[in-house]
Design goal:
The protein is of the alpha/beta class. It has two domains: about 130 residues, NAD(P)-binding Rossmann-like Domain (Rossmann fold, 3-Layer(aba) Sandwich); about 200 residues, 2-Layer Sandwich (Dihydrodipicolinate Reductase, domain 2). It is built from twelve helices and 14 strands. The protein has a nine-stranded mixed β-sheet with strand order 13-12-11-10-6-9-8-7-14. Helix 1 crosses helix 11, helix 4 packs parallel to helix 5 and helix 5 packs antiparallel against helix 12. The relative contact order is 0.16. Bound molecules: nicotinamide-adenine-dinucleotide (NAD). The site of nicotinamide-adenine-dinucleotide has 22 residues, from strand 1.
């Protein structure tokens, strides 16, 4: 199998998400790190790229240098991952798409709906892949839940309850720490804090499992630590196109909750529950029946769950492997296969439209507002 050449922007030494991408992209031998502009500090970025095995002439000081350096090479990278802070995603992703590169962008894909629409337009015009790293959707048992909904096993989905609430920004005495403070500063984070950071993962998960899209929502935002301009707690009610009722709670001040991402799906003939802290199990209850624990790796699961299970039954399925599954699908797509489950620019755009709708709704005391991006309305 020919290895695909991979480039990375951001994700430098000490970054949170960089190691997950490197492990994810390279775990299966699909991608080899061939180029990078890894750090805001040019010197550090070059040095670290070379430490990771990138040739000196492809260890770039910044993304503009990388774009110029790669665009005219015969052996240009097949895929560029954008893992920089949020406010830079749009500019970098757009520039690389326009130059004919395939891109995997971190979430949130952009800072505004207009930028999101522009990325979708550019991606469509370029014919290149622009994927977004909603990596939780690549857990095998999340795929199993999606498959169970699609095959009608729990009937029409009436209700979804999902949370992405942790307590890691709950210490008011740490609120001025620069690594925390920017997330609640509109100049750095945009129009939303916690909802745009974590809530959109939960909203994407709801759509992904239900096989449906959010149509409208109502939000209540709170900055429970008063020095914060943007919300650190959000309660969002939503309705899906097919009528499913949704409840989403996202918080960063829920002290005691660690990762805190879970989803419950309630259908006409059964219910399911999954939590990212126990990603190997789905709890399934048929109507009038006993609760069953479905385990990753056991016989009888869908092909999709089986395909993405990497370790034997009862072994923990790590978060980086969910990222790896995004890369598995990207590699397959780059080689011409169809991968319908890959989160795409449209998903990034829908998230941004939901963020703006939530901000709008919260400002109107929870009024119901249209959450669909204009370009994707029927
Ligand atoms: N999908 C997920 O589950 C998930 C999880 C964590 C973070 N993220 C996203 O990943 C992105 C990065 O988050 P993080 O927590 O790793 O941030 P971080 O602050 O830990 O690291 C950011 C890295 O990007 C580098 N950088 C900054 N500006 C740059 C530029 N212009 N060019 C090149 N490199 C630059 C920094 O030097 C650093 O190495 C964010 O958009 C975040 O929302 C996604």
């Amino acid at each position: 199998m020919k290895r695909l050449k991979w480039g990375m922007i951001g994700g430098g030494e000490g970054s949170q998400i960089g190691p997950a991408h490197r492990l994810g992209a390279q775990a299966d031998g699909n991608f080899v790190l061939a180029a990078g502009a890894l750090d805001a500090d040019a010197q550090k970025g070059r040095a670290y790229a070379m430490e990771l095995g990138v040739a000196g002439d492809r260890a770039y000081g910044n993304w503009q240098e990388m774009l110029e350096g790669e665009r005219n090479r015969e052996d240009r990278v097949d895929l560029v991952t954008v893992a920089t802070p949020n406010s830079t995603h749009f500019e970098i992703t757009k520039a690389f798409l326009e130059a004919g590169f395939n891109v995997l962008c971190e979430k949130p894909m952009t800072m505004s709906v207009e930028e999101g629409e522009e990325i979708v337009r550019v991606a469509r015009a370029s014919g290149k892949i622009c994927a977004v790293n909603y990596c939780y959707s690549a857990y095998p048992m999340v795929r199993e839940m999606r498959q169970m909904v699609a095959s009608g096993q729990i009937g029409r989905v009436r209700l979804i309850v999902t949370n992405f609430s942790h307590g890691h920004h709950g210490d008011a005495t740490d609120a001025d720490n620069p690594r925390v403070r920017w997330r609640y500063d509109p100049a750095m984070a945009g129009v939303s804090g916690q909802f745009a950071d974590c809530g959109i993962h939960a909203l994407h998960m709801a759509s992904f499992v239900a096989g449906d899209q959010v149509r409208s929502l109502s939000a209540d935002f709170a900055s429970t630590i008063p020095s914060r301009e943007l919300e650190d707690d959000a309660m969002v009610n939503f309705r899906m196109e097919g009528g499913t009722v949704g409840r989403l709670w996202s918080s960063s001040v829920a002290i005691g909750r660690q990762h805190g991402f879970d989803i419950q799906v309630f259908g006409e003939t059964g219910g399911m529950r999954w939590a990212s802290e126990q990603p190997n199990q789905v709890y399934y209850t048929p109507v009038g029946g006993r609760t069953q624990i479905m385990e990753k790796g056991e016989p009888g699961l869908s092909n999709e769950a089986a395909r993405l299970s990497r370790v034997a039954i009862a072994h923990p399925e790590g978060f980086p492997l969910a990222v790896a599954n995004i890369y598995v699908d990207l590699a397959a797509a780059l080689r011409g296969a169809t991968r319908d489950a890959l989160p795409m620019a449209e998903d990034g755009l829908r998230s941004m439209a939901a963020v703006y709708a939530a901000v709008d709704s919260a400002a109107q005391e929870g009024a119901w507002v249209d959450a669909r991006p204009p370009m994707l309305r029927a």
